[in-house]
Amino acid sequence: MSTQKYDWNHGPALIQQHSIAKHRILQTYLAAYFQTLISSPYQESLKLTLIDGFAGGGMYVHSRKKDIVKGSPLIFLDSAREAEFLINKDRIKPIKFLIDYFFIEAERPAYTHLDKVLREAGHGSRIGNEIHLRHARFQDEIDSIITFIRNKTPQNGRSIFVLDQYGYKEVPTQLIRRIFTHLPSAEVILTFGVDSFLNYATDSDLTQALLDGIGIPDVLQGRSISEIKSSERHWRLFIQSALYRNLVDHCGAKYYTPFFIRNQKGHGDYWLIHLSQHHKARDVMTEVHWKHNNHFIHYGGSGLDMFQMLGYNPDYDAVSLGQSALGFEFDDVARRSSVTALMEQIPRRIYANDEGLSFGVLFATTCNGSPASAQIYREAISTLLEEKVIEVFSKDRVKRRSAYQIKLNDQMMAPPQRRLFID
Questions:
Q1: For residue 412, which of 151, 175, 314, 335 sits 20 to 30 Å off, Cα-Cα?
Q2: What is the Cα–Cα distance from 43 to 94, expressed in whole angstroms?
Q3: What phi and psi, each to the nearest 5 degrees, are found at residue 214?
Q4: Total domains present in the chain
């Protein structure tokens, strides 16, 4: 495994800028996620379980700036505290946050350091109560964690698993599939060291054994690594595409958003993949990509049915260089490109159905293959309404005048003159 583990033997470990990007995504996502859990002004409590399966030592030192950087356990705790304050500040009756945290760490130096960091941050009294600190492998704890969550929230199993593994083989797809089978409202944020795999992939039995262990044995569909390298000009991207598709298919999630993180030194790239069972969760993560638009790319197109690969380039945190060479950027130009592409593609989907298509079905069935958020879909539909390319009706047959009025179950249809034309 080419990914070097952190060293916690002498205090906070060094962390690279591309790894800090993961923390930024997690923090931004949690801030938005907590808001989605408030469904009623009369809601009295919020039950949630947050799991950090590879928690680390809790504190880092920036490799270049030498600043102290908080790790994911403190990001979990700080984000929940901030969300509780913001959500309750204008409420007559505060919502009680009932959150449990599982921080799992297998390496003894990291576990010891994390315990010290949590206590120094004022969380000592919570350890053994709502903070469950475990010196163990995540794979060995998953069944007990699932049981805990099912007992706490039996209806939905609401939880977020952050699985920031070293490399690519410690979280097999069958483990993630088990999470989704037992916890219908769970979400998983997974890292996968794709470059680490590509650097060591050969036609040996060892590579096939690794794929079997990960739970994606048929990635290459009978082709050899050497044959792919000799026949595919961009063989790394070719194998990445096959790996990604098989990985998300075998994890059992209905919705996914891949985020591509690029190491400053070139190779060492990895994925941060968000997996969930609801398109709303997927949309919240997509909005995170657009919010941090300097740090993300994908290698597909602007519209629908494109293989999507999002990315982060650490050079952007120092100087505004390098990103344009990687692909489609999540900036204003990309947003306009996405709207234009959707304006061309959405009518084709609608016209192909005599009864039209609901906005919810359109988004749910196409969002995995698009870099666009629901908001960008609405921008495209708004222009289509203005240009009378489509019509939109509520379930009570009320005609929508603006895309921003559209509900998920509203029906989008071809106008009568267009229908005559296509017939």
A1: 335
A2: 9
A3: -70, -25
A4: 2
